[in-house]
Amino acid sequence: MSNSTSKPGAVQCGICGEDKPQTQINHPFKDELRWVHCACSCEINRIDDFKREQASKAKGIRINKILRLSSSMEDIRSLSFSNFDPRKGSEDAQKEVKDAVENFKDRGKLGVFIFGETGNGKSHLTASGGNELINKGYAVIYITEKDLFSRLQATKNFKNEESFQEIMGACLEADLLIWDDFMSSQNLRPEEKDWIFQIINGRERANKPIWATSNITPKEFESEEIAYKLDDKGRTWWRILGNMNCVFNRATNYRKSKAMSRAMGISIEEYEAGKRG
To answer: Each residue of 187-196: pLDDT tens digit?
Structure first.
């Protein structure tokens, strides 16, 4: 601020050498206007660039920290839509995952629930979509239900490297949580039911999606009993249905077809054609 009401001389920007713009503002203690030199546009741009750089670094650290929670990260990162072998019956699931990737921001908390026979490509599809989002700068966790429960259980050991808060916090904070083999546990302990509800409810409140895969059958999906497997009031199950597009993957078990065709000395196509015949 100038020492008087007179307009001061020009001051050059240290970056571009041009005169800095000037404007008048109210003096904080006197009832008069004083001239001040403003930041040059190039100085403002430099500050904005620095802020973006710092934000990008912070996000990178956050993403890498969250990625470390994922199960078998090296195997997962190799999966993509380009190396997915489209199988008859998987069209709807693939379409849904691709839509979830392309419209990720607009979909908000709307997730994906893909169920069907084991080995039919559900995990490959969700991992492929998750990898595309990672490449776009989103923080994604891919974890199996068994691994999640084991790691949360292990936090009861005070020597454990991960704390309960770190694991639960990452599951709630990640832009996307891919929950593989959801409801694969035959008998859920009360604390496991509570963990599931904490994650489902927490991500709903944060407007963040979950992509889940499950081996439940269409009969199980439509049954009344399944709603009460997660809690005695069905609140968790209805939150899942309310926040996810549910898709039945009709494709057959590829791993089984591959093993059987090898044992019989025929191609996978021949084996599956024989089954249909």
So the answer is: 899 999 999 9
